[in-house]
Structures are given as structure tokens and as C-alpha cells.
Design brief:
The protein is an all-alpha fold. The chain has three helices and no strands. The relative contact order is 0.14. The model has no long low-confidence stretch (mean pLDDT 92).
Length: 68
Amino acid sequence: MTSDDTVIVTAGGGSGYGNPMEREPEKVRQDVIDGYVSIEHAKLDYGVVVNPDNFDIDYEATKKIRAR
């Protein structure tokens, strides 16, 4: 490399804004459907439990996770 070289770094994802546990569950569900977030990370990072068969939100399980 020389001092004239240019380095470009591209990183996936954005850091977002605010507490992820406060994101609306429907928005997290849509992120799963759109492929932005896995079902596993919807639960781990956002506290939203999404059924892998039909993408329905398990609101009771979500409420329990978010209460911790």
C-alpha cells in the first residue's frame, strides 16, 4: 500500500437507535420476514418470539422475555 491508496470498508447492519427490547414486535416480525433478522436473533436481541412456521408473534412468550 502507498499513501495514495484508498481503502473502503463496508460493514453489514446498522447500530440502530434506542433499546432493542422496546422495538415494536410487529416491526421485528417484519424484519424477520424481510430477512434482516433471524428468528433466533429476534428473540435474543429484541425479545420477540416469532413462530418459524407462520411468522406469528408469541405475545405471551415475548412479554415474559421482555419483563426480565
